[in-house]
Design brief:
Length: 101
């Protein structure tokens, strides 16, 4: 199953949508805007990669990063960068400079 179908299948159908979203056939799970961010250094890159890997857990579609089959997390584990259990069991917190630019 494609990711879009998987996510939309689990999106509540009774959710209220604005007229603009309805006209554009947008679901509220998809972000309408993005924030540009220039990666400043290796530490900043690492924090953003962790944010991306933890996002399915944060949004309740996986219990741990390893459970999200579409994630690049598995490649990082294979390379020895992450332990297979990273992000499992304990909530991972990010400061306000990550993911909200």
């Amino acid at each position: 199953m494609k990711i879009v179908g998987w996510v939309e299948e689990r999106n509540p159908t009774n959710e209220a949508h604005s007229a603009s979203r309805q006209n554009k056939k947008e679901k509220s799970i998809w972000q309408r805007r993005f924030w540009e961010h220039l990666i400043r250094n290796q530490q900043d890159l690492n924090r953003h990669i962790e944010y991306i890997h933890y996002n399915p857990v944060k949004h309740g579609i996986a219990k741990a990063p390893v459970d999200w089959e579409y994630s690049s997390f598995h490649r990082y584990v294979d390379k020895g960068i992450y332990d297979l259990k990273w992000g499992s069991g304990n909530k991972v917190e990010f400061d306000d400079t990550v993911g909200y630019e």
